[in-house]
Structure formats: C-alpha cells, structure tokens
Design brief:
It is built from six helices and nine strands. With 214 residues, it is α/β, with parallel strands linked by helices. The strands form two sheets. Strands 6-7-8-3-9 form a five-stranded parallel sheet, with helices on both faces. A four-stranded antiparallel sheet has the order 2-1-4-5, with helices on one face. The longest helix is centred in the C-terminal third of the chain and has 18 residues.
Length: 214
C-alpha cells in the first residue's frame, strides 16, 4: 500500500455540525508511504475515530477513504485480516493489551502470528525502553506508561506500510518519548513505511513533514 486518501470524509456524529473547521475532515487528504504525519486535535474531535476508520474497525463516516485508490468500503472482511497483519499496524490509544498476560506474552501473541521478529531483538527493545525487568510481570500490575511501551513493541512485531500511532506517548516522560520515537522511526524507515501520529498536545519531537489540525 502506497497511499491512503480521504475525500470529503466526516464522522457521522459530526454530520449536523456545519461549523466543522479541520485540515482533514471534509477535505481531500493524501498520506503517502515513507512519510511522517502529525494529527493534532482537541479531545473529542475525531482523531481516534480516524484510526478506527483507517483500520476498518468502524464505518460510521460519510465520504470516501481509499487505499491506493480502492474505496475501503469494498474491502471484504477476510481481506482486513491480511491488511492488518501485513500492511497496517495500529497503536491504540486505549492499548487493548491483555491484563491477565505478562508483558512478554502480550508481545508474543502478535509475534507468533507474524513470525516477524527474533526474540533477541524483542529483548533488546524491552531493554532500551526500560522495561526489561517487567517482561514477566502481568500487564494489570504495570503502570499505563509501561503498558504504552509494551504496546509499541507489539505494534512493531509485523510488516507494515503504515503505522497508526494514536497518542502513543501520552503517559511518558520526555526521555522515554525520545526513545519511543527513535525505535518507532528506525523500524518505519527500515520498512519504508509511513507513520501517522495523533496527539492532543503531548507528542514526540520528530521531523513531521505535515501537521493536520482537527
């Protein structure tokens, strides 16, 4: 996948609002593979909805979203499985990890499906992110910031053309923000992928090529 395009797209919940002022909603927008984008928004303006639309989890929008010119409303349910395994990776704002599993088990759930990363590389990421000592800790016993770092590692355990990162560092200090941004961008560059980051104000200091205001 090389391009994600939006044409006159708008969440249905905003349909009765004629005053929507946005760089993205009701606009023609193109995200290209290999580029880095930031979406800045106030809470409740649709940034998480956008990620859900792009990942095919929700369809409650008007207008068009297309992958390489194909309207994603035409993508069959069984096709989405392959897209999410090989083309799109998503870091959810609410993480969607399993609290009854350990940090390592949460990551391995994805990696055992994709067989994309060696355990040695995963262990190096745990070390770099300062959570090596939490590998065998249940997620439910970890802080939200620690869980965000586990979610990042899980998201990188697959091939992707685009990485969607929905507020990935909202609970991290500046030092950990820097490490997360570095790991994320190193992997994205290695894969030649595009990255779309959303934020309500606290975001990584990265060389964004374009910023959209919702």
């Amino acid at each position: 996948m090389n391009k994600i395009t939006l044409h006159n797209t708008l969440p249905l919940v905003f349909a009765q609002r004629p005053d929507v002022a946005s760089d993205l909603w009701r606009q023609d927008v193109c995200f290209e593979r290999g580029h880095l984008y930031l979406i800045e928004a106030a809470s409740g303006t649709g940034k998480s909805s956008l990620c859900a639309f792009l990942a095919g989890y929700r369809r409650d929008y008007s207008g068009t979203i297309a992958f390489d010119g194909r309207d994603i409303r035409q993508v069959h349910t069984f096709e989405w499985t392959g897209i999410r395994r090989r083309q799109l990776s998503l870091i959810f704002q609410e993480l969607r990890l399993f609290p009854e599993l350990t940090a390592w088990e949460n990551v391995q759930l994805k990696n055992q499906l994709t067989h994309f990363k060696r355990d040695t590389e995963l262990a190096t990421w745990f070390e770099a992110l300062g959570i090596a000592d939490k590998r065998d800790t249940l997620l439910g016993q970890m802080s939200f910031g620690q869980q965000q770092r586990v979610a990042l590692i899980r998201a990188l355990c697959q091939p992707f053309d685009f990485l969607l990162a929905d507020e990935p560092v909202s609970h991290l200090d500046p030092a950990n923000c820097h490490i997360v941004g570095e790991l994320m961008m190193n992997e994205a560059r290695r894969q030649g992928a595009g990255v779309i980051v959303t934020s309500i104000g606290h975001h990584m200091d990265l060389p964004y090529e374009k910023t959209f205001k919702l």
